[in-house]
Amino acid sequence: MPADAGAWEALRAAFKAALSLHATPEEGLQRFRLVHHTDSLRAAYLGKRVRCQEELLPLLEAGLAPSGTGRAEARAIVVSAFACFDAAIATWLEGDGQGDILDLYDRGLAAVRG
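RE: above sequence
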């Protein structure tokens, strides 16, 4: 297993925890639609996402340090994971909430990681 596998799993667990804040998939669908289709809310979401990535970076970097993975690689992992999560949400919204966001995330991540 690659040394960075733990980082990918930790980020997936964080996304899973964030999704669990919705009482039902229907509630999540309503919230995600609102955020993705309201310019001001989408801008606020993107700003928070960037701040969250920057706050996660030192934690991820510290966890990867023993494997020799540097800051650039840690940043690439964080940004890629968030991009795959955003792609999963967009796909889920296009499908009117059909399927599972984490399954879509896993498929996107598999495509990115090759």
